[in-house]
TrEMBL record:
Positions of the Transposase Tc1-like domain: 74-144
GO annotation terms (biological process): DNA integration; DNA transposition
Domain Tc1-like transposase DDE intervals: 153-300
Source species taxonomy: Eukaryota, Metazoa, Chordata, Craniata, Vertebrata
Protein name: Transposase Tc1-like domain-containing protein
InterPro entries hit by this protein: Homeodomain-like_sf, HTH_SB, RNaseH_sf, Tc1-like_DDE_dom, Transposase_5, Transposase_Tc1-like, WH-like_DNA-bd_sf
Residue stretches making up the Sleeping Beauty transposase HTH domain: 5-56
The organism's place on the tree of life at top rank: Eukaryota
Gene Ontology terms for molecular function: DNA binding
Organism: Oryzias latipes (Japanese rice fish)
Length: 333
């Protein structure tokens, strides 16, 4: 004899009403199961529900009780709002000390229900007062520029790409729309060194050249990059306006690039977060390290290969919401 256990099928409303009708007609509990082919325990439950509530349909189920009390939820919300870098393990210990033992997933679910999600902190530059003033002035001058203005800019910069560059990711608990709040960002400062240095440029309409910088960067090398790669990329993409950092501008001026009909965008110092190429570098590094290059020559080849795979959709996605970058500067002062 085989016994099959499983979830019983819910009876239709008509069959439930028929069971109650048979009962009111005086038919006993023993006969109804035989007439309707329904277990006696089910018959009894339906009739009891009808007597108690006057209905035969199932009442809405309240669901499983929350594993963290309302007070416990308020405690962990208050903690992460005050200290966004609090880990789930730390919250777990805090709840355990109060007598509540739950998993990290349960803690995440409780915070998610109240609009708090674990996100990687945005990196923002370390700013002095003069940097803040320059950035606000730049935003004020360019906030009302139409989208077509940003689409015609050739964005450029250099970056360090490490051979083994995947580090442990730190998260912060924050609500949507608060990515650039100071307590949800990680300050950064520029520094030299690294496995390789790469220089690149892109625009909404296309990707410019990627240049792997050999050895130590010198003024002469930088002038060569700007003269050979920046100008050739601008001509190739038919660009008339170029974004340059403060150091790049000084080199460009020394080369007389203005005479070559390349108009420079005045750029505030310490503002890599306003340059969408920084997001492009991040995407590139993720794809490069997925391929697990094992030496520097392999790293260079993979970088060049992945740079060539940048899609039009990626470029447009980085440039089209540019106004939001400017608004974030004003919002966070």
């Amino acid at each position: 004899m085989h016994c099959m256990m499983g979830k019983s099928k819910e009876l239709s409303k008509d069959l439930r009403n028929l069971i109650v009708a048979k009962h009111t007609e005086g038919i006993g509990y023993r006969r109804i199961p035989k007439l309707l082919k329904v277990p006696v325990s089910t018959i009894g439950a339906i009739i009891r529900k009808w007597k108690e509530h006057g209905i035969t349909i199932n009442l809405p189920r309240p669901g499983a009780p929350r594993k963290i009390s309302d007070r416990g939820v308020r405690t962990i919300i208050r903690r992460v709002l005050q200290q966004p870098r609090t880990t789930r393990g730390e919250l777990q210990k805090e709840l355990e000390s109060a007598g509540t033992v739950v998993s990290k997933k349960t803690i995440s679910n409780a915070l998610n229900r109240h609009g708090l999600h674990a996100r990687t902190p945005r990196k923002t530059p370390f700013l002095k007062k003069k940097h803040v003033e320059a950035r606000l002035e730049f935003v004020t001058q360019h906030l009302d520029k139409p989208m077509t203005f940003w689409e015609k800019i050739l964005w450029s910069d250099e970056t360090k790409i490490e051979l083994f560059g995947c580090h442990k990711t730190q998260h912060v608990w924050r609500k949507n729309g608060t990515a650039h709040h100071p307590q949800n960002t990680t300050p950064t400062v520029k520094f030299g060194g690294g496995s390789i240095m790469a220089w690149g440029c892109f625009a909404a309409c296309g990707t410019g050249r990627l240049h792997i910088i050999e050895g130590i960067m010198t003024g002469e090398k930088y002038r060569d990059i700007l003269d050979q790669n920046l100008l050739s990329s601008a001509r190739l993409l038919k660009m008339k306006r170029v974004d340059l950092s403060a150091r790049q501008r000084s080199q460009a001026h020394s080369q007389g690039n203005k005479k070559k009909k390349i108009k420079l965008l005045e750029w505030p110092s310490q503002s890599p977060d306003l340059n969408p190429i920084e997001n492009l570098w991040k995407d590139l590094k993720i794809r490069v390290h997925r391929r697990d290059p094992r030496n520097l020559e392999d790293l260079k080849a993979v970088c060049v290969d992945e740079w060539a795979k940048i899609t039009p959709e990626q470029r447009i996605r980085l440039v089209s919401p540019y106004r939001r970058r400017l608004e974030a500067v004003i919002t966070n002062k």
